[in-house]
Amino acid sequence: MTNPVCAIIGYGPGLGASYAATFAKAGYDLALLSRSGARSDQDVEGVAINAFPCDAGDPDALSATLAKVEADLGVIDVVIYNAGLASFGPLEDIAADQFEQNWRVSALGLFAVAKALAPQMVERGSGTIIVSGATASLRGNVWTTAFAPSKAAQRILAQSLAKQLGPQGVHVAYLVIDGVIDTADTRTHFAPDEPDEFFIKPDGIAETALMLARQDRSAWTFELDIRPFSEKW
Question: How far is CA 13 from CA 43, 71, 184, 206, 208, in A?
Fold first, then answer.
């Protein structure tokens, strides 16, 4: 019996690595997609872990890479869309090409994934698409001139996909990640003086994603908020 396949689009240190570790331990073969083609140091017996270089902002390249994943590993059962580009700043600091690239990575990339994988998932009557979202998908702020519109477009696209694909057996879920993910980079450059409870543990997010992938179809979740217990909201 072959393992189910999980494709993680936007693999890297932090959340991407936690998704990989969690799903590998759960018995999924992994396809790790990133611009750098970064490879995982995970070594789980009986699990295949392959890396694929790909730019999520290039829909043609993304579609071709997903076809290669399925040729190499088999049909993709779960896809985690973790790709994102966070260009922060007020209007005067954001160039048009930055605004467009944020949208391409957050929204157009998810659209390309759905176009590439949804028809086969619908034909099988099964499959899961999980999207790493953000609070910025719900509201804008001074510093999210480019980031918030891209995440809002992503969330609404995910909702549209859920309403179309859910009745056909495909589970689409959107994670509203409300807080700062605990990585070496965020601790150094974003919140160096904050205590541990300020941060969201990436392994906690990954465990939530695995739960969503295993949900009974009689009780599917579309949108789920994730925040540290100490977060004000």
Answer: 16, 26, 9, 13, 18
Count other Cβ atoms within 10 Å, centred on residue 170: 23
Q: Evaluate the CA torsion angle 68, 72, 77, 80 in order and state its sign.
A: negative
| C-alpha–C-alpha distance, residues 83 and 106, integer Å | 7
Q: 185 CB contacts (<8 Å, ≥6 apart)? A: 13, 14
Contact 48, 73 (CB under 8 A): yes
pLDDT of residue 231: 84
Q: Using one digit for the tens of pLDDT, what is the confidence trace for 148-199?
A: 999 999 999 999 999 999 999 999 999 999 989 998 888 887 788 898 889 9
CA distance 8 to 5: 10
- DSSP-derived pairing of the beta strands 49-53 and 78-81: unpaired
Question: Can you say how many angstroms the Cα of residue 116 is from the centroid of all Cα atoms in its chain?
Answer: 16
Q: Which of 182, 100, 132 is nearest to 11 (CA)?
A: 132
pTM assigned to the model: 0.95
Predicted confidence (pLDDT) per residue in 49-95, tens digit = 999 999 999 999 999 999 999 999 999 999 999 998 889 999 999 99
Exposure of 227 in the CB half-sphere (CA atoms within 13 A): 11
SS3 89: strand
